[in-house]
Amino acid sequence: MRATLSFFGGVGSVTGSNFMLKGERTTLLVDCGLIQGEKFAHDLNREPFAYDPASVDFLLITHAHIDHVGRIPKLVRDGFKGKILSTPETLDLSRLMLPDAFSVLRMETPEDAELLYDEQDIEKAFSLWETVPYHTKREVGEFEIFLKDSGHILGSAMYEISLTKGSTAVSGRRVVSPLLKGVPHSDEGRVVTIPSLADSGTPFTEQPPKAAPFSKGDGDRKIVFTGDLGNYPTPLLKSAEDITDATYLVMESVYGDRNHEGGGQRKDRLKEVIRDTIQRKGVLLIPCFSLEKTQVLLSEMDELFEDKKLFDVPVFLDSPLAIRVTDVYRRYADTLNPEAQKRLQGGDDIFSFKNLRLTMDRRAASEIERERSPKIIIAGSGMSAGGRILEHERRYLGDPNNTILFIGYQAIGGLGRQIQEGVKHLHIEHEDVTVRARIETITGYSSHMDGEHLLEFAEKGEGSTEKIFVVMGEPRSALFLAQRIKDYHGIDTYVPVAGESVEIEL
After folding, report:
1. Where do the domains of the chain lie, and which CATH numbers do they carry?
2. Are 230 and 150 in contact (CB under 8 A)?
């Protein structure tokens, strides 16, 4: 059967994930995320969808990060009445993430402007939501879905999508739209080429791919949406499961052009940054994503702070959302990796330690300022796009004894990215701030696979995968990864542009 694959978000950028698969009688969406960090993100999020939400039958959610779920209430507001599907963990986390995002939205929207959505839209979305556990098949119209663990955050899933047995399928032959032939893309005279590994300015010359069967032996054809793929090893989660038999792969590329520090390296770097801040009698600010980054950071600090001779300073978790999310992680402790479960079963609360202080309300948060330095403050949002971290950045970034540590992706154009890149004069919380604090970045805490691991992940499909669509990355990252996959594994790759549709055969 011929199906149409469309790319409405998460192409040319990391955020705003939104893909469509349209069959003969069923239309699926994969994710409906908020665009974050970009200069015109506010306006882009308010634009009408490029399709009729009422025509969508099912919305498949890969995980609960706002750049994957943040526009679901808008989709509902604009007419979506189908079913929303995700893992149980993703539903529970989304029950926290969406109301929190709405509170930020309400504060940032001018009084004379209409809200993107309201609380009733959020509640209606949850009334349409159903859960599907990992390793479970479910029919969705003429398609069948199967969920695998992507290892990114708690409950994150990849979706394998194939035709139901009663649908008409193509078996044993390869039929590919002309748009899909080769990596270069031509669209009304515009050509996109992928830079070579040796020189990003060198035009790509297509090499013949390795010989491979057109489809796997049993004749089944499927498309797999990876969502975000998890970095590994991680102290909490299991690694992403392999995908070995996808006909088409829609694959993330956030860090497609670089590699992370290893787990041991990142902990050593964290130790160095903490020690240096203590010696300076300064404040260590850590803008942290409430979901996954905070829990990983707490679990590693739990180990570091066991040695009181090394570190004995207060650590403030100034994020009510992160505190609630951590409780969800505790509830799903039996889904964590064996090492994390072993620590928990041994009586070690891996998300808490003696020096940790939780600040749920503003009154408790006011104690942070009164506490003498040195001290550590963990607060959201992770990209400094809102939340309590802004108040701390306004107060502490002007002191050269203080340090700000980034441990997650910073979107182009966002405040976090500006600080990370060394912009000295900023406007934060209605005040002009001159940045004198030390700026540090540890990439090893990323919850995304790096370039080498993405390449290894793609290799598992060598011999069955006909085409990999490389998405959810900045242009250089996506193009670089696409070229590497083609060079190393001979798998056809393609980097789509926003609003593009291609035809595939299932």
Report:
1. 2-258+447-505 (3.60.15.10), 263-445 (3.40.50.10890)
2. yes
Say whether the peptide bond before residue 233 is cis (omega within 30 degrees of 0).
yes
Amino acid letter for position 423: V
Residues with pLDDT less than 70, the chain? 38-39, 166-219, 308-309
Please give the Cα distance from 124 to 135 (Å, whole number).
28
| Cα–Cα nearest to 301, from 374, 351, 343 | 351
CA 349-322-159 angle, to 5 degrees, is: 95
Residue 48 confidence (pLDDT): 96
Q: What is the dihedral of CA 35, 38, 42, 43, to 10 degrees?
A: -100
SS3 labels along 151-202:
CCCCCCEEEEEEECCCCCCCCCCCCCCHHHCCCCEEECCEEECCCCCCCCCC
| Of 394, 408, 381, residue with least CA distance to 107 | 381
The 10s digit of each residue's pLDDT in 255-290 is 999 999 877 789 999 999 999 999 999 999 999 999
d(CA 13, CA 7): 12
| Tokens describing residue 6 | 């469309």
pLDDT of residue 262: 78
DSSP letters for 245-310? S-SEEEEE-TBTT--PPPHHHHHHHHHHHHHHHHHTT-EEEEE--TTTHHHHHHHHHHHHTT-TTT
